[in-house]
Amino acid sequence: MRILSLLASATEIVAMLGCLDQMVGRSHECDYPPQIRVLPIVSTVQIDTTVSSAEIDAQVKQLARKQHEPEDPALKALSIYAIDVATLHELRPDVIFTQTQCEVCAVSERDVQKAVAQLIGYKPVIVSLSPYRLQDVWEDILRVGLVLGRRDQAQVLVEKLQQRLTNLASQTTSFGSKPGVAVLEWLDPLMGAGNWTPELVAYAGGKNLFGEVGQHSPWLTWQELQAADPDAIVLAPCGYGLERTMEDVALLQKHSAWAELKAVRDRRVFALDGNAYLNRSGPRLVESAELLAHVIWGKQLGIPVDNNGWIHVQ
């Protein structure tokens, strides 16, 4: 089977199921495991990601408005991502993995359908994942396994991931009190973290302050952040690695309310690699929960984590 993955989490699932050798192409965001980086890239992002977070947000919102203006059909063709149809035709995948969860976060099913419609002579199968909560992620792993003929392996993988989370919850529950945790998925403007992140915070032994399980991430005001006054703050902007996240810390520090927050005074502000962990709906969400537990509880947790995946900000 010739596999094209246009979703980073799907790529990781394919790898965990032992089918990496069948992949023929990837999206511009698929970067893990490292060996897939030699594969042809089929997608590109059509906004300028080198500008500030506020400017990126403005570009995305402008495109989103234009996509939903029915009076001008031409504007509805605009998208945040583009697919190289010529490369797609050359690769001739049997199956394409994409998603319907968020058109901002990754190449969407709509983008793929438009590209596939331009192919001549064959039509690959399009498999769209739609994760909003952890249960959806487990079901997506099973769906990928079924498509790849690895249903049994997928079931074993899901059970192992679930057991790790159960073990983590058992340990963090024994610590007693649940500190209030604010996970910020964007820093300018402020955004909380929804979807599966509240579940990860719960497994990590914290009380999630913003965002609901299975719901898109909410925008926040500084007044709301002040009112919640978190015990710990985790910075994990969507699509940002640690280096890019740290560039935005100054945006928070210059706000008059920042220094007054309990988490800041107590030096419990951390950055997680949101691009690799929290925001990627694949097997490493379990590692994301362990990273959250590590920054919340420190050395008493005793679980090894990727020390390159987090930074103690202040």
TrEMBL record:
Top-rank taxon: Bacteria
Species the sequence originates in: Dictyobacter aurantiacus
Name the UniProt record assigns to this protein: Cobalamin-binding protein
Record-linked PANTHER family: VITAMIN B12-BINDING PROTEIN
Gene3D superfamilies: Nitrogenase molybdenum iron protein domain (3.40.50.1980)
Domain Fe/B12 periplasmic-binding: 2-300
Database matches in InterPro entries: ABC_transptr_periplasmic_BD, Vitamin_B12-ABC_binding
Pfam families: Peripla_BP_2
